Amino acid sequence: MKKILVLVLLLAVSVISAQSKVYKEQDVSSAPYFPGGWNYYIDFVQKNFKWVPQKDQNKHISLSFTVQKNGSITDVQLVNPLGTPNDKEALRVIAKSPKWVPALIKGKAVACHIIRTMFNPYEDDEMGGDRGLTIEPPRESTATSEIEDDNTIYHIAGVEVKPDFPGGMQKFYEFFKKHFIMPDEEELNGKVFASFIIEKDGSLSNIKIIRDMGFGVGHEVLRVLKGCPKWIPGKQNSKTVRVQNTMPFAIVSTPKTVPEKN
């Protein structure tokens, strides 16, 4: 009788343990994501985050948290906190988040621990080079994938073989600088964030400006991206897949020279 009771208790403990298990992002078949996808997450952050410009400010703030099976967020922690007001603001914003779409393993919802980033709109790195237009290397999302119309869209950090521009990203920067027409405005200094999907055939789709700086800059970035040559698509498990990428473009106009009066 005692042996049976011990066996029942062990089975109960194992069931509870399995139900409460928190998986790593790389161990799930579908990673948790903000309702609507990556663009909606960025839009949510931009609308709710009240950044405080500071001299030694965060370039970005990363948060680690668990998305439970019901989509709720728990165990939120700052990654490499600096003790700034923006750190506290990041915690406030993530606490306001709606429930996420939970991770899946074999079609069943599971708890999953992830890290997500909130980008600083006041960051202004010195890139050097051509002051007419500077382009930063893409910042990568840590999400792995999300399901949309039965086609998996992998975020660029989550694929085994990342998509690439023919000849490398430097060639992409050269293409962009060559075709980007700087608006006729003085002292432009800011950033535009654009997102797009690299399709299986290498073409770009779903191109969106997710943060603009005005003066027609966003429209011009959109125009150039729409005319972009096909990329080399990404791969997962040796199969060509659709990949979403988000890129910031730092725009700095060249000051106009005013002729001196004789």
Explain what you see:
The protein contains five helices and twelve strands. By secondary structure, it is an alpha+beta fold. Strands 6, 7, 8, 9, 10, 11 and 12 form a seven-stranded mixed β-sheet that branches. A hairpin with a 5-residue loop joins strand 9 and strand 10. The longest helix is centred in the first third of the chain and has 18 residues. The chain is flat. About 13% of the residues have low confidence.
Key features of this structure:
single chain, 262 residues, alpha+beta, 7-stranded mixed beta sheet, 5-stranded mixed beta sheet, 5 helices, flat
The count of strands amounts to: 12
Distance between the termini: 109 Å
**How would a textbook summarize the main sheet?**
7 strands, mixed
Classify the secondary structure makeup into a structural class.
Answer: alpha+beta
Question: What share of the residues does DSSP label as strand, in percent?
Answer: 25-35%
Annotation field: number of helices:
5
Radius of gyration: 22 Å
Shape: flat
Order of helices and strands: HEHEEHEEEEEHEEHEE
- Helix content, binned percent: 10-25%
What's the average pLDDT?
78
- Poorly predicted ranges: 11-18, 124-150
